């Protein structure tokens, strides 16, 4: 672990670290002529929908153009929380939606976390899950005000589970001089995302779902009886119900949904093994971590606590993961100086989907069900919204999801190609610098 002038360890690979233990595998299923429910997208949202449908006696066919779980579902950081993952502070939400509705959203977000934990236990999902808590660092002194409001929203929704820590207590959570305080969430956890999506797929199949990879939906048309005809890369297929869970990989066959999603590549790295003692020096409580910057960092220990996994927006254009790995390594060693000299074994990327209102969305458009826009917090969110989509399909839900009452906005002339992201990235960098965040003391 000496500084060799390169951030790359021998054997460095551009592949998700998670895939070492649970690589996505093809699902070979012969396509039938028709299915009761066809789910497009074999990630967390689609598999959660299929599992819940199966538990209620309705079999789903899940299609994905890649191996099941290949997308962000097996590439993310594996951090999860409830209402703490809502993208806006309470005052912003209340101004947009009203206090009563915001309380419903926050309550549902907290309940989604409890439901997730119950699901892991009930289905016996092998995913290295642990409730470890989450620390969110304040990148600037004024960011503490927003964290205080978020903590208030969370505590109103689910009890005393969020606490604000002053700057002098940051070292209890992370060995950095750069955060001005932070927020501690107790109702938060970590898992192995590739193991989770693999276990979720197995649970869905056990409840009667069929999975087929290497199948792309090319188009669909609604029929007079309310069903659908799908043209796929492996032939025509009829479905009584159609559900989309494609999120950051939504293609041109779904233009209405694509216009409402902004796909952004998020990048991650894994350090070489440095041992639990050194990991604990850097991250004493072994939680999951994030911060308040516009260009945020997210990071955590590996499940065996022998290395550190670190992610962020290393580029606002599609970039190769070797180059972005060097950038993320620079971010990591600046944030936690004790890690200077530590090298990298893995780097990878995956698409995150943002909505223009920064909120998750579940609903029905022209008969097509969907669960989309995790906004960077997808494990609990997509598990919950997939279940909510299943209840929409089944009908008779006594309490539909509050997120289904949100409109799903777009912007004039937007078609799903986020051409504006380089400009957004530059503006975000400027905002972080104006707030006082600097990568190095010499940086202007």
UniProtKB/TrEMBL annotation:
Gene3D superfamilies: D-Amino Acid Oxidase, subunit A, domain 2, FAD/NAD(P)-binding domain. SUPFAM superfamilies: FAD/NAD(P)-binding domain (SSF51905). Keywords: Oxidoreductase. Pfam families: DAO. Residues 37-391 form the FAD dependent oxidoreductase domain. GO terms for molecular function: oxidoreductase activity. InterPro entries: FAD-dep_OxRdtase, FAD/NAD-bd_sf. GO terms for cellular component: cytoplasm. This is FAD-binding oxidoreductase. It comes from Neoroseomonas eburnea.
